[in-house]
Amino acid sequence: MTIDEFFDKQLTEWPLARDNYAALARVRTKTLMVDGLPYRVQSNAARILSTAAKTDARSISERPCFLCRTNRPPEQRYIDHVLDSYDILVNPYPIFPRHLTIALTEHHPQALSDERFADMLTLAQMLPHFILFYNDAQSGASAPDHLHFQAGSRNILPVEQAIYRSRFEPHARFIDTDCREEAVARFAQLFRNLQITQERVDPMLNLLCWYHDGQWTVSLFPRKKYRPDCYYASGKAQLLCSPAAVEMAGLFVLPREEDFERITATDIYHIIQEVS
Ligand SMILES: [Zn+2]
User: Fold this and answer.
1) For position 50, what pLDDT does the model report?
2) Domains and CATH numbers, the chain
3) Separate counts of helices (H) and strands (E) for the chain
4) pLDDT tens digit sequence for 102-141
5) What global pTM score does this model have?
6) How far is the CA of 129 from the centre of ligand 1 (A)?
7) What's the 108 CA to ligand 1 centre distance in angstroms?
8) 179-191, pLDDT tens digit by residue?
């Protein structure tokens, strides 16, 4: 079964997914120029579950893991044995016209290693119409207890466009190569450096990867903060925005319409500065 067939099957059988993908096609979007970069902003009410997810250890331990097979909705199908270890799922709360979650079959904490990064490269190669992304447990993953990647339709995120590369470079490290070993070696070096500078085994980061014309591009955004102060503010000062890979890559997803109306280029600039 192809990914398109898998998608169509899910949207036929699963009303929640069908409704949310139909709603995504109608969401409001706008573009704000932030320091020479055209940031996309998306008003997406279905994302409130992820944006406002409680990811502290206690909340996580008290809820059933929604990525484990036994707890998934009965309508949610999966493609199993991907790289022997992963299930491909349709994400029922989409940001992209095609949005997948790729979950490890076993319940295992969200943590990166050279092997998992190599899996990400392979997945990007297997899914050339998608950009793969990973949020570490402290930088936007709403299931920090279950290892997963996500994949979204290509050519939506500004980070993919070479002309904007220099605008991302203050906050991101890029790897471009046609050689898998080189990609893994360079990632390993960046990862070790982050482990040292952040003094964490699992450094805070967002990672994106795509494969085009025989070449991988990887963009790694080191993070220093999970959510910006405006997330916790009250009244008009509050902007409910929880930056993850997609936001760092140039697309701000705001579940509340009033935030969508109100957010300015200056807000985005400051949020990126604050969490990078
Ligand atoms: Zn799980």
Assistant:
1) 80
2) 3-27+54-226 (3.30.428.70)
3) 11, 11
4) 999 999 999 999 999 999 999 999 999 999 999 999 998 8
5) 0.96
6) 27
7) 7
8) 999 999 999 999 9
Give the HSE-up count for residue 164: Cα atoms under 13 Å, Cβ half-sphere. 19
254: tokens are: 């705001």
Ligand 1 mean position to 66 CA, how many Å?
Answer: 6
Give, in degrees to the nearest 5, the angle at Cα 29 between 25 and 35: 145
Alpha carbon of 49 to ligand 1 centroid (Å): 17
Phi and psi dihedrals of 184, rounded to 5?
A: -65, -45
* Ligand 1 center to 260 CA (angstroms): 32
User: Could you tell me if 68 and 107 are in contact, meaning their C-beta atoms sit under 8 angstroms apart?
Assistant: yes
CA of 53 to the centre of ligand 1 (A): 16
Instruction: Report the C-alpha gap between 6 and 132 in whole angstroms.
Output: 18
pLDDT tens, 27-72? 999 999 999 999 999 999 988 888 888 888 888 888 899 999 999 9
Alpha helices by DSSP H, listed for the chain, are 3-13, 15-24, 48-51, 57-61, 114-126, 165-168, 180-198, 229-232, 245-248, 257-262, 265-275
Other beta carbons less than 10 A from residue 36's beta carbon: 8
Query: How many Å lie between the centroid of ligand 1 and the Cα of residue 1?
Result: 25
170 CA distance to ligand 1 middle (Å): 35
C-alpha of residue 105 to centroid of ligand 1, in Å? 8
Q: How far is the CA of 148 from the centre of ligand 1 (A)?
A: 10
